[in-house]
Every structure is written in C-alpha cells, then in structure tokens.
C-alpha cells in the first residue's frame, strides 16, 4: 500500500541536497511559533468551518422566511461551503504573490462583510450573492492559508498538528450551533447574522498570527525531510527513471528570472543613488518606481510558480495518484455535508425534535469529530502505521455510515450512526498530510487548493441535490444512497491508482533487462 510520494516515484524537486556541514534545525519548526500557527488555524476552523456546519439552523429560518422550495433554499448554504473550497486554486495564486498572512487578513474582512450584508436580505437570491459568494470567497481566502501554514511549520508531527488545528471544525460546529440557536431565538436570524459578522472579524487577528517562515528555515526543513527519507529513496531503483519521465520542475528559469529581477532592482537603486544630488521630488518618484518594480517582480514570480504547478511540464496533473485523489474529493465531501444541512429536517419528520433539542445530532457529530481528528492524527504519526491506510479505513467507515443512516428511524440509532460519522470524518486532518506526501511542501498550497476545490464542487451540488430528491420522493433516503454509492466510486479510484503506479516501473525495468 502507498506510503509516500517517493514510493510512487514522484518528486517535484522541493528537497534540497544535503551538504557536508550539519545544519542546525530551526526552533520554530515543530516547536516555538509553530504552536501559535496551530492555535491560529484552530480558531479559523471554528469561525469558518464550524459556522458552515451550523448552517442547518439558518436553513430552517430561511425556509420559513422566504417560503421557497428546499432545493432552492439549500443553494445558499451550498454556495457558501462550495465557494469556500472551489476558490482554492485561485487563492493559491494570492498566496504565491502576497503570502498567507495578507491573504488571510483580506479574507477575514470579506467574510465579515458577507455575513453583515446578508442580514438585510429580502429574498433567497440576495443571499446567493452576499452569503454564498461574498462570504464564501472570504472564507476561502482564510481557510487555505490556515492549512498551508501548519504544513510549513511542522515536519515530524504534521498529522498531529493538522489534527489539533482541524478539531476547530468540531468545536465550531458544536459552539456555533448553540450560538446561532440562541441568537435566532433571542434576536431573530437577521440580527444573528449581523452579530456573527462582527465575530468573524477575529479572522483578521488569526491571519496576523501567520508569520511566514524565512526562506532559510524552509530550506532547513527540506534538508531534514531528505535526510529522513534518504534510505527509502535508495531502495527504489526505479525512482530516477520515473522522475525523468514525469519531469522535475526546472530551476533554471527561476534562476534566470531572479537574476533579471535583481538587475531591474539594481538599476532602480543605482538611479536612486544618483538622484540624491537632485531634488526631493525626483527621489520620491524613484521611490515609487522602486516599489512598483518590487511589486511587479513579486507578482511575476508568484504567477510563474502558480502557473508551472498547474500547466508546466511537471504539472501536478501528471501525478496519476494525485488525479485519483481529485476524483475521490469530487464525490466525498457531499456525503459529510448533506447530514449537517438536512438532519434538522429529518429529525422533524421522525417526530424526534424533543430529544434532538436536548442533544442535537449535529452536535454529536461535531463532538466526536474532535476526538476522531486527534486520535487519527496520533495513530498516523506512529512509525509503524501508514497514513494512507488510516485514511482509507476511515473512508470505508464513513461511506458505510452514510448508507446505513436512512435505515435508522429512532433517536438512539441515529445518534450511534452520527457518532461514527463524526469519528470517521476525522480523516479530514490527514488530507493535507497525504497531499504533502504526494507533491511535497513546495507545491502544497496549489495541490491542496485543487483538492479543496474538488471538495467544494461536491459541497456545492450535494445539499441541493438531496433537497431536489426530497421534493420528488418526499424522502431523504435516496439522497443518502446515491451519495454513498458515488463516494464508494471515489474510494475505488484511490485503491486502483497506487497499484497501477507501482506496477509500471516494474514492467519498465523488466523490459530493460530483456533488452
């Protein structure tokens, strides 16, 4: 079974060569400020993903207020969840140009603006624009940097760090469900959204905590990784052939571009020195020219990295296992989102509202989800355990629960299945780790952006599809069955591709031996 990207034969050139002199590890990697990054990411997950998991409360309010079909009303929540994830690849471009900190701060302002404007909605279509699009884009601009920064700051305890940070989703779903219920009861849903918008401004503080690692620290991290994986790489006789066939991102254009950029900035500085004898006005103009030149260089370099990752010779899409991962993501996330959006309505149909008000089923998923992420993260960090195998087992458990949920019509039965859904969905904390193993830290932002984009498409169409099926059949059963079967198709893709990928190098080596 799959263990790391070297086993598959993919290397995107992010690991530096180990020099003869030992390099002292950076104290902020796996410690120090790294834990502040975990705290920042934890709060981001509470405020963004937790709030989205509690949208079932607002969905019922919108159904009563606007008197629209369940399918149409569900689009509001789906747009917010879907766009948060779909914009991932484009947010990767922002990160390449502006960095994680600036991207997250801008996203926090945009998210809060979306919540506040939604308080004045006159119809569902107004919410599509304000809550679905505006708040969704803002959420995406904060969410991706929060995940990427944890991956940059941790090497040895990546799964545990990602697990701790993403437990914010479970805490947030539990807290935000209770908060939105209280606010809607006491102040009405419009004032509740206004207050939530004010709370969302704390995302800007989370973004400010995302202090970037120095380039030297990143190089040190790559050296540590190449040291720890050197023995495995030597054992793979076919790795060199595979790398050549797939193509490694060329460093020559980057070096040439850096040299050209230095020439531009150097010429500006030379002119600035010569202009000291001139007027203050001309120096001010040269200062503006220098700033514009530096900004242009940053934008060009960021766009070049983003473009090469998607469309270059060594594009991420040449990695077949990564492509299978994308196909899985297209089907997986809707199976997790549908229960959160429609469970309050299902409980109402089964006349279980009294028991659900005491302890909501969505809160059960949220609480157990916290433990699932931490426990799965700890298990995956054990040296004798494969992260990939843990990831697959959790997926099998989740798809079984989705297919079983319609058969449960008592509160106890639903509670047990919801608890299993919460625990098994803890694999979300392993997604960044699996992605980083496939493509490397250098391409994590763009690669994970693609994965969450696929998840976003799944979240975008899942709940409206479930609502549409209900409008036809007056039951949610078929929605869960279809979502579960599509999810199973995605898991099969994950199982098939690594096996095919391992066979190909063996076949090539056999042919070469015969020649």
TrEMBL record:
<dbReference type="InterPro" id="IPR050327">
    <property type="entry name" value="Proton-linked_MCT"/>
</dbReference>
<dbReference type="GO" id="GO:0008028">
    <property type="term" value="F:monocarboxylic acid transmembrane transporter activity"/>
</dbReference>
<dbReference type="Pfam" id="PF07690">
    <property type="entry name" value="MFS_1"/>
</dbReference>
<dbReference type="InterPro" id="IPR011701">
    <property type="entry name" value="MFS"/>
</dbReference>
<feature type="transmembrane region" description="Helical">
    <location>
        <begin position="446"/>
        <end position="466"/>
    </location>
</feature>
<dbReference type="InterPro" id="IPR036259">
    <property type="entry name" value="MFS_trans_sf"/>
</dbReference>
<feature type="transmembrane region" description="Helical">
    <location>
        <begin position="160"/>
        <end position="180"/>
    </location>
</feature>
<feature type="transmembrane region" description="Helical">
    <location>
        <begin position="386"/>
        <end position="405"/>
    </location>
</feature>
<feature type="transmembrane region" description="Helical">
    <location>
        <begin position="478"/>
        <end position="496"/>
    </location>
</feature>
<dbReference type="GO" id="GO:0016020">
    <property type="term" value="C:membrane"/>
</dbReference>
<feature type="domain" description="Major facilitator superfamily (MFS) profile">
    <location>
        <begin position="37"/>
        <end position="502"/>
    </location>
</feature>
<feature type="transmembrane region" description="Helical">
    <location>
        <begin position="192"/>
        <end position="210"/>
    </location>
</feature>
<feature type="transmembrane region" description="Helical">
    <location>
        <begin position="126"/>
        <end position="148"/>
    </location>
</feature>
<feature type="transmembrane region" description="Helical">
    <location>
        <begin position="33"/>
        <end position="55"/>
    </location>
</feature>
<feature type="transmembrane region" description="Helical">
    <location>
        <begin position="411"/>
        <end position="434"/>
    </location>
</feature>
<feature type="transmembrane region" description="Helical">
    <location>
        <begin position="75"/>
        <end position="95"/>
    </location>
</feature>
<protein>
    <submittedName>
        <fullName>MOT14 protein</fullName>
    </submittedName>
</protein>
<keyword id="KW-1133">Transmembrane helix</keyword>
<feature type="transmembrane region" description="Helical">
    <location>
        <begin position="102"/>
        <end position="120"/>
    </location>
</feature>
<feature type="transmembrane region" description="Helical">
    <location>
        <begin position="361"/>
        <end position="379"/>
    </location>
</feature>
<keyword id="KW-0472">Membrane</keyword>
<dbReference type="InterPro" id="IPR020846">
    <property type="entry name" value="MFS_dom"/>
</dbReference>
<keyword id="KW-0812">Transmembrane</keyword>
<feature type="transmembrane region" description="Helical">
    <location>
        <begin position="321"/>
        <end position="341"/>
    </location>
</feature>
């Amino acid at each position: 079974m799959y263990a790391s990207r070297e086993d598959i034969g993919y290397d995107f050139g992010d690991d530096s060569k180990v020099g003869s002199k030992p390099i002292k590890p950076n104290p902020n990697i796996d410690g120090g400020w790294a834990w502040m990054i975990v705290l920042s990411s934890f709060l981001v997950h509470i405020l963004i993903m937790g709030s989205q998991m509690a949208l079932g409360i607002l969905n019922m309010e919108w159904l009563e207020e606007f008197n629209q079909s369940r399918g149409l009303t569900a689009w509001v929540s789906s747009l917010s969840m879907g766009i948060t994830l779909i914009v991932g690849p484009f947010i990767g471009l922002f990160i390449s140009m502006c960095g994680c900190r600036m991207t997250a701060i801008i996203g926090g302002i945009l998210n809060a603006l979306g919540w506040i404007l939604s308080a004045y909605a006159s119809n569902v279509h107004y919410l599509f624009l304000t809550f679905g699009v505006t708040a969704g884009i803002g959420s995406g601009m904060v969410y991706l940097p929060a995940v990427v920064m944890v991956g940059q700051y941790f090497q040895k305890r990546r799964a545990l760090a990602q697990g701790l940070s993403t437990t914010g989703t479970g805490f947030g779903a539990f807290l935000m469900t209770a908060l939105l219920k209280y606010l809607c009861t006491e102040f009405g849903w419009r004032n509740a959204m206004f207050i939530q918008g004010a709370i969302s401004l704390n995302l800007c503080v989370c973004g400010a905590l995302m202090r970037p690692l120095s380039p030297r620290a990143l190089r040190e991290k790559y050296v540590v990784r190449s040291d720890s994986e050197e023995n495995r790489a030597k054992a793979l006789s076919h790795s060199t052939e595979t790398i050549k066939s797939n193509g490694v991102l060329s460093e020559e254009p980057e070096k040439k571009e850096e040299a050209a950029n230095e020439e531009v900035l150097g010429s500006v500085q030379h002119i600035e020195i010569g202009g000291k004898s001139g007027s203050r006005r001309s120096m001010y103009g040269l200062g503006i020219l220098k700033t514009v030149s530096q900004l242009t260089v940053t934008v060009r370099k960021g766009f070049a990295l983003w473009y090469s990752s998607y469309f270059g010779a060594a594009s991420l899409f040449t990695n077949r296992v990564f492509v299978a991962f994308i196909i899985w993501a297209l089907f997986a996330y809707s199976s997790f989102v549908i229960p959160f959006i429609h469970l309050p309505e299902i409980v109402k149909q089964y006349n279980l509202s009294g028991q659900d008000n005491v302890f909501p089923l969505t809160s059960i998923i949220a609480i157990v989800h916290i433990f699932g992420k931490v426990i799965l993260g700890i298990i995956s960090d054990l040296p004798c355990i494969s992260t990939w195998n843990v990831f697959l087992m959790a997926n099998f458990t989740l798809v079984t629960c989705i297919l079983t949920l319609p058969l449960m019509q008592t509160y106890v039965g639903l509670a047990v299945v919801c608890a299993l859904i919460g625990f098994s969905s803890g694999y979300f904390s392993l997604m960044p780790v699996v992605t980083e193993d496939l493509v490397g830290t250098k391409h994590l932002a763009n690669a994970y952006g693609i994965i969450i984009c696929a998840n976003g498409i799944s979240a975008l169409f899942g709940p409206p599809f479930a609502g549409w099926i209900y409008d036809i059949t007056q039951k949610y059963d078929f929605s869960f069955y279809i979502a579960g079967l599509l999810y199973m198709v995605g898991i099969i893709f994950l199982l098939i591709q690594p096996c095919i990928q391992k066979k190909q190098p063996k076949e090539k080596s056999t042919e070469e031996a015969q020649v």
